[in-house]
Amino acid sequence: MVTFGRMERVSLFHSVVYTGLLICAFLLDGPQPITFILGLTHGLIWIGMSITSIFAVHYRVINLRLAVAIALLGCVAPFFGSIEFLRQSHSRGR
């Protein structure tokens, strides 16, 4: 079952994986196979989140703005989706 909270947790995990990928690729000079595994994980999570966000918008779990942040900006930097999740989570809490 897709919920806002579960998608938020996956998005935050995705940001952590991407941060690890950036550190391995640029600061540690790309040690293999760690860089490959983190890159593959980032790509698979992004694809999964993008597909899930289509259904989540359809079933009104998330709004279109969040889905765009996940699908379009998530491939370059998943931080946009995580920030938007945190912003909307804070708004829902009010």
Structure description:
The protein is mainly alpha-helical. The chain has one domain. Helix content is 77%, strand content 0%. The chain has 4 helices and no strands. Helix 1 packs antiparallel against helix 4 and helix 3 packs antiparallel against helix 4. The longest helix has 25 residues. The radius of gyration is 14 Å and the shape is elongated. The protein starts with a helix and ends with a helix. The mean pLDDT is 93.
Structural class call reads mainly alpha
Provide the domain count: 1
Number of helices: 4
* Radius of gyration over C-alpha positions, nearest whole angstrom: 14 Å
End-to-end distance, in Å?
25 Å
Largest sheet: none
Outline:
elongated
The amount of beta strand, in percent, is under 5%
What is the count of β-strands?
0
Mean pLDDT: 93
SSE sequence, one letter per element: HHHH
Short description:
The chain is built from four helices and no strands.
Question: Which short descriptors sum up this protein?
Answer:
single chain; 94 residues; mainly alpha
What topology does this entry show?
Blueprint: H1 4-27, H2 34-58, H3 64-71, H4 79-93
Helix pairs in contact: 1-2, 1-4, 2-3, 3-4
